[in-house]
Design goal:
heterotrimer, A alpha/beta, B alpha/beta, C alpha+beta, A: alpha/beta, 8 helices, globular
């Protein structure tokens, strides 16, 4: 019987990251197609909380207690402990997030187990003896479908590809104590700093309202934020806005920033040059507001409103308020 | 200090000229290459550290033989020398092979830090660096916005970007650090650097030189296989709305309603 | 448009030259182009661009490595000028004149003089200028009247120079003056390295010009300016020969500037033709526009290829140097004027206003038909080379 594994990625406060709930949902649906089961792995000095959260999505969770995990960078610890379980399963399929934590785990796990990796899955189905993974390549110009030669391997999946959905009944949690000495060097986390205004990972947002050079300054991002709030979304930015210091790098979307796939990408004062385009062009709906009707974004947006982004933005806020109230 | 920077030649994203081979994999020899953008941030970070703390920066690349041309630009930025691992068997390598090969090459080197970019613009995987660290049992410090080595104590402190802000990590050197854009803009190669790049040494290594078995690596032994490729579905033509701000706003609301976003 | 890095037609450029060209292409786009309109509008010398070029070793290109330069050959220097001129003609002039002013030293300077002056020139700490032209002596360079009188182990220089680029910002001016008024015409002159500021040296005024407005074009007066004998470049009477040899080598720089200006204008006109719509379609779909753009491209490319060939021939030396030098400058200067004029035409009304850069490029292009030998002088040089041949 095939096991589709998912590794619980923690938020800063130790709770289950949303991407893991999504990955677990995907693992469960793959397991159904494969006639197998989805199983989770949680690694921490006290994994019970995060293991119980993950158990809502899968048939069982192996909760590995590693007393020396506290105050250490998570990915290497999780990868080596998960490897001890996964190495016993020669047909293992593992699903993790494609964000920084997920990638770090995937890389180390691949090295420790010899499993291959398929990255940034936008759709995963079960085919014959393993997953069939669809990914977009070359900045979105091409869609590729790939498989693991042996049918076993690690898949990294982006946010919003799957909607997290709990199983009908929660799975059981099995305790396991990490016995062996640590294989990989552990890196001390000396300090954790929370920065004011830090938002939830923008890759998870279903709606992103983004500002570019046209916003003109940090004050202009106030309007961008208001529209984002009105639409229940997050604020994004282009490289130009970040370089000008108007908004933190964490909100940057594009080739050297984040790749996102929201339901709605609302681009305000953004020209749509290639470096930015590769970060957002797979969004389901793209709306642009720009003074220039010939900006590159006009070639791939669903709707382009030609006008001043502040005027149109204010009108949009008013229209949304009227609609709501 | 000796810092090794992992660099990869990739198809120029601005040129949009990628070509596929018959196995659906990128035909690297056919597409014009540039240094991977994210690797330039790692290289710039390394050069700044070498400038301020004293030391040298070396480059390490796995690529087709013409990767030496792309390496020249990175040498022109100020790296002292480069190592190019190239072997016909490596064509079509997946992340697993790349990890094995680069780790093997690093085993033959002495260094304080290995710096790598977050991911490549062609593969966008971001899994090779953590794989290399695991194989070599190096401390792994990812997503760095700041790197502060303490040469006397042989430790390094790194600010790792997190969703809520940043963590400060500390580890002994040698260590592997993944570098983000937040570390600073890469310098233009100076003209002296460009003219002098030709005199800098690029050492070429094959799989045999690294003591690796071609029978377990490269395209022929990839753990993954591309089954099919297709173009993404084209969007409908863009609807352009001109007129008053209110008309524009109304068009947006209508679209979002139709698509059930609001 | 394909990225520049793939363009090496005929494989005539070395890897270093391709990398240099591409690096300066990006640098010009990112750091120089955004300043071009402001430099033109304020007519202020762009000290920030001078610092940038110095920092990137661009001003070191013409100078030998042993004195802190980059040791670039003529083609390499022209590649750099072309890329900078594409973004801003005034900025490219900083490099052009750094070379022009130093060429007398490169050609005829003693090892001691080179060791004394090159390090500061190569690093860009000191700017050079070329002091030949006078109010009454433009094309007729041999008729200059500035006088250098020997007095013990010094010369005293008196006279007026006009249209001296960088005259007000240079620290070293290579000045041509009459040392022997009774000698035959082409033996009257000598060349001197004059460090300024100096007693008796004055910048009288700066010109207000049609184009290259950020470049300071100065009238300089010399009133018994004292210059040690050790500053004389070459022997007495060699001045005219040095001046002509200088211009043979510096003219390709002007040609490169012209090619760069024309290329910049072509790019603006092409982008405009792609985007501007009239009568329901892009104006680039109209044959008259297509014909203009095609002719512009043909002119730019042929000027460029001739320039590159000329650089190689001049670097190699030989009897045809003057002809190659004149040919490339003649063709490129005329091409730049035609291409920029047509670029304004393609943009129509928008080409005439400063919202787009082509009107500035057209004004900038004109000087390439005038300085370092007018187009008319170039034709004389070429004709002389043709007719002077035994089989002609």
């Amino acid at each position: 019987m095939r096991t589709i594994w998912v590794i619980a990625e923690p938020n800063g406060d130790g709770s289950l990251a949303r991407i893991s709930a999504e990955a677990a949902t995907m693992a469960r649906s793959l397991a159904e197609s494969a006639g197998g089961e989805a199983a989770g792995i949680a690694v921490a000095s006290d994994p019970s909380g995060i293991a119980n959260e993950l158990a809502a999505y899968v048939a069982r969770v192996v909760a590995i207690t590693d007393a020396n995990a506290d105050g250490k960078a998570w990915a290497a610890v999780a990868a080596e402990r998960a490897a001890t379980v996964i190495s016993d399963d020669p047909e293992a399929v593992v699903v993790v997030g494609a964000g920084p934590d997920g990638r770090d785990v995937a890389g180390a796990l691949s090295a420790l187990t010899g499993l291959g990796v398929l990255v940034n899955a936008t759709a995963v189905t079960w085919a014959d003896d393993g997953p069939s993974v669809e990914m977009s390549a070359f900045g979105g110009k091409l869609l590729t479908t790939s498989t693991f030669v042996s049918g076993a391997g690690i898949v990294t999946v982006r946010p919003n590809v799957v909607e997290a959905q709990a199983a009908d009944s929660a799975g059981k949690v099995e305790q396991l104590a990490a016995e062996k000495d640590a294989l990989l060097p552990r890196v001390d986390v000396v300090e954790q700093v929370v920065e004011a205004g830090a938002a939830a990972p923008i890759e998870e947002a279903k709606v992103i309202v983004s500002g570019g050079r046209g916003v003109g300054g940090a004050e202009g991002f106030g309007l961008v934020g208001e529209i984002a709030t009105a639409l229940g979304g997050a604020v994004g930015a282009t490289r130009a806005a970040v370089d000008s210091g108007w908004i933190p790098y964490a909100q940057q979307i594009g080739q050297t920033g984040k790749i996102v796939k929201p339901d709605l990408y609302l681009a305000l004062g953004i020209s749509g040059a290639i470096q930015h385009k590769v970060g957002m062009q797979t969004a389901h709906t793209i709306v642009a507001v720009n003074r220039d009707p010939d900006a590159p974004i006009s070639e791939f947006a669903d709707l382009l409103v030609v006008g001043d982004l502040f005027e149109v933005g204010a009108a949009l806020l008013a229209a949304l308020k009227t609609r709501a109230g | 200090m000796h810092i090794v920077v992992l660099t990869k030649p990739v198809p120029d994203p601005a040129a949009a000229a990628e070509r596929l081979g018959p196995d659906h994999r990128l035909d690297r020899a056919a597409s014009p290459s540039v240094v991977n953008g994210n690797d330039e941030y790692a290289l710039e970070a390394a050069l700044k550290l070498a400038d301020s703390l004293g030391g040298e920066v070396s480059l390490l690349t796995m690529s087709p033989a013409n990767g030496a041309d792309t390496m020249r630009k990175a040498l022109a930025m100020g790296a002292a020398r480069g190592t190019l691992v190239t072997d016909p068997a490596l064509a079509g390598s997946d992340a697993w092979s790349t990890t094995q090969v680069l780790a093997a090459a690093l085993r033959g080197m002495t260094f304080d830090l290995v710096l790598a970019g977050v991911d490549t613009s062609d593969g966008v995987g971001g899994v090779v660096a953590s794989g290399i660290a695991a194989l070599l049992r190096l401390p792994y410090l990812g997503n760095a916005a700041r790197i502060e080595p303490d040469v006397a104590a042989s430790t390094v402190r790194v600010r790792r970007i997190t969703p809520s802000g940043y963590d400060v990590l500390e580890a002994p050197m040698p260590a592997l650090v993944v570098c983000t854009q937040a570390l600073g803009e890469p310098r233009y190669p100076s003209l002296k650097g460009i003219m002098g790049a030709r005199t800098k040494e690029i050492t070429t290594q094959s799989l045999a030189d690294l003591g690796l078995d071609a029978g377990t690596l490269g395209g022929a032994n990839a753990l993954t296989a591309v089954q099919a490729t297709k173009r993404p579905p084209a969007r409908d033509a863009t609807k352009v709305v001109r007129g008053s701000a209110e008309e524009g706003a109304a068009a947006i609301v209508e679209l979002l309603t139709t698509r059930r976003i609001i | 448009m394909a990225t520049v890095s793939t363009l090496n037609p005929g494989n005539r450029l070395t890897d270093e030259q391709v990398l240099l060209r591409d690096t300066l292409h990006d640098l010009a786009d990112a750091r120089i182009a955004p300043r071009a309109a402001e430099i033109d509008r304020t007519s202020e010398f762009p000290e920030d661009i001078r610092q940038l070029l110095a920092q990137q070793d661009v001003l070191g290109l013409p100078f030998p490595v042993e004195h802190g330069g980059v040791g670039g050959d003529l083609l390499t220097v022209c590649l750099a000028i072309e890329q900078i001129a594409r973004a801003c003609a005034t900025s490219s002039l900083i490099l052009i004149v750094q070379e022009l002013g130093a060429l007398p030293l490169l050609i005829a300077g003693s090892p001691e003089q080179q060791a004394r002056w090159f390090p500061d020139l190569a690093s860009g700490r000191t700017l050079a200028a070329f002091g030949l032209t006078e109010p009454e002596a433009g094309s007729d360079a041999a008729s200059i009247r500035t006088r250098a009188v020997r007095d013990g182990d010094e010369y005293r220089i008196s006279g007026t120079k006009r249209f001296i680029t960088n005259g007000s910002v240079a620290g070293l001016i290579t000045v041509f003056a009459v040392t022997d008024p009774d000698a035959p015409r082409h033996k009257r002159l000598s060349c001197f390295g004059v460090e300024v500021p100096a007693d008796g040296f004055r910048v009288e005024r700066l010109e207000h010009k049609l184009g290259i407005r950020g470049s300071p074009t100065a009238e300089l007066s010399f009133a018994e300016v004292r210059v040690p004998v050790a500053n004389r470049i070459g022997e007495e009477g060699e001045g005219f020969r040095i001046a002509m040899a200088t211009l043979d080598r510096s003219r390709p720089g002007v040609a490169a500037q012209a090619v760069g200006i024309a290329q910049g204008a072509l790019e603006v006109a092409t982008a405009y033709a792609r985007e501007r719509k009239q009568f329901g379609q892009r104006i680039g779909d109209f044959q008259m526009i297509q014909a203009m753009l095609a002719d512009m491209d043909a002119q730019v490319e042929s000027a460029r290829q001739l320039l590159y060939t000329a650089c190689v021939e001049i670097e190699a030396g030989g009897p045809d140097v003057a002809r190659w030098s004149a040919l490339c400058k003649l063709v490129a200067g005329d091409a730049a004027m035609r291409v920029t004029t047509d670029a304004v035409q393609v943009l129509g009304g928008y080409g005439y206003i400063d919202e787009f850069p082509v009107e500035r490029m057209m004004r900038d292009a004109k000087i390439t038909q005038i300085y370092e030998g007018t187009q008319q002088v170039q034709r004389l040089v070429i004709a002389r080379a043709l007719l002077g041949r035994p089989d002609a």
